[in-house]
Amino acid sequence: MLNRRAAHLCALILMTVYFPSAQDAAIASSGVWKQLLNGQALTGWKHVGEGGMKMVGGQIRTGGKGVWLLYWTGGVVSNCTIRIVYRMSGDYDRSGVFVRIPIEPRDVEMPFDYGYQVQIDNHPETSYEDEYHVTGTLYSFTKPLAKAWRPGSEWNTMEIPLRGPRTIVMLNGVKVTDYTEGDPVPARKLDWEPQRGRRPDEGWIGLQNVDGKKHHVFFKEVAIRQLPSAKDGKEVLHERTGNRFK
Amino acid sequence: MFKRLVIQACMVVMAIVVLISCRQPQAADPATGWKELFNGKDLTGWKFVGRGSAEVKDGLIQTGVHGEGLLYWTGGKVGHCMIRVVYRMQHENGNSGVFIRIPLEPREDEMPVTYGYEVQIDNHPETSGEDEYHSTGTLYSLTKPLTKAWKPGPEWNTMDITLNGPHTIVVLNGAKVTDYTEGDSVPDQKFDFEPVRGPRPDEGWIGLQSESLKDVVLFKQVAIRPLSQQEVK
To answer: What pTM does this model have?
Structure first.
């Protein structure tokens, strides 16, 4: 009894340390989708790298010179599902969704080597890459479980549940990736592939731009929702440092 | 009853704080507190990332002989400590650096540049078109040296780097070259190869830079000791 009360007290103390406000915790545990794009401006997002993105009719359009990353400034997330609705502008365009970035990005390299890129590229063979580099894979790490992408300008819905060390990618309702930290991965085949090694359970998220002169991808929705607890069906509260779903 | 609860809670919190902050090496000299990170024989406890490699020859770590990269200490993050590095250049000048405050365990040699600090070792930055913000003892490209304290190759130099929370001090051969606290103003990036600006963590991984065959730097000692309570104040 004493121990339990002491534990509760400790939990309370830790919560006041970690959680910016009780309201944040309430929102994060409510299980509803939180929209991260407001349809007008890129509030809550920050750009690093070359080039730039555009807001076109309430959607993000990748483009501009070089490689860049647009990351969500809300902080690290975990035990949640990220939902992205996107389409290509033509037959062949490339982008990616970054997850599990361990620290706040200042450049485009670190997210690549220390986080995962959920790839958006329906024709990796065009750049001499194999199926480990196709839409819905953890770029260069995982083999797709199915081909689920829709071509050209059709909309695609990608859902990425992140539960602890497990990463799932559902594309248009079909599971393409189911990877748990520690599962075997192939050695690096190409110079530009990311470094191997464990990714953190919680991380920053972002959208990638690849060589925007050629490739334009439209994002009309980026949303996030807390996962229910695996144990008792209740919503998961922040388990470690704060998921600040403000 | 309530008092006991509070005491228990405080003890748990203190234990957590101690676990987080006191990640100092274990086997230190009880008299001085110094722990040698280089055993004088091989690179046990060190790992190289990047294209090249480092080697130990005649009891010295040689950087630069096998190409670019970073030799980092695998013992984990350090902070609230003093790091002592004794080095010399193979020739009259050389180029290396001591990396500190690296936030993640390195897998390659770019992240440490962008997210940590390099305490520079290069007596003649002007030969590569760089100014004094890039000379020995500075936080590379970020701080102006308070004095010129380096000895030319092949003389030995002793560099003491104090990491006290957000405060970084570099003393070279007994003279203070750098005294920087997170948040102090720094110049804008002059070259695109300079590190991105922004705060560095209070604790981080550390390593030695390997530059090139014409910039060989030899290290005789890399040691660490925790700061005393007086020093922390």
So the answer is: 0.83
